[in-house]
Amino acid sequence: MSAELRGNVWAASAALLASSGTLLCCVLPAVMVAVGAGAALAGLVGAVPQLVWLSEHKALVFGVAAIALALAGGLLWRARRLPCPADPVLAGSCRRLRRWSIGLYGAALAAFALGVAFAFVLPRW
């Protein structure tokens, strides 16, 4: 298995983690308030005060997530035509890692887009 393919899984996982921060800062509070769970949100903020910091610095959170997504996308694009090993077992593992990488990257893009919608688009609407 190529080290580059394993690196792609890690890069896609890091992008997913970074874009999940956008969900915590912006989507979670908006959804909780929308469904009438404002008191639960206040309790959550009391238990995890870092959520306030994430919300106050959402431009930084989204910037870091965008950089992680760009790096992961570049790595996936560069490795898209790397050959898999000739051994059938290793080739299957190689194909599975590629699917995982692409799936994780897609989930990260979806999380980022949802965060952008809640943080920047819907408040102006």
How is the topology of this model organized?
Layout: H1 3-34, H2 38-47, H3 50-56, H4 58-78, H5 88-121
Helix pairs in contact: 1-3, 1-4, 1-5, 4-5
3D architecture notes:
It is a single chain. By secondary structure, the chain is mainly alpha-helical. The protein is elongated, with a radius of gyration of 18 Å. The mean pLDDT is 84.
Q: Note the gap between the termini.
A: 48 Å
The outline comes out as: elongated
Tell me what portion of residues adopts beta-strand conformation. Answer: under 5%
Helix-and-strand structural type: mainly alpha
**Which regions contain 5 or more consecutive residues with pLDDT less than 50?**
none
Provide the residue-averaged pLDDT. Answer: 84
The radius of gyration is 18 Å
Q: H/E order of the elements?
A: HHHHH
By DSSP (H or I, 4+ residues per run), the number of helices equals 5
Largest sheet: none
Residue share in helix: over 70%
What is the tally of beta strands? 0
Features:
125 residues; 83% helix; elongated
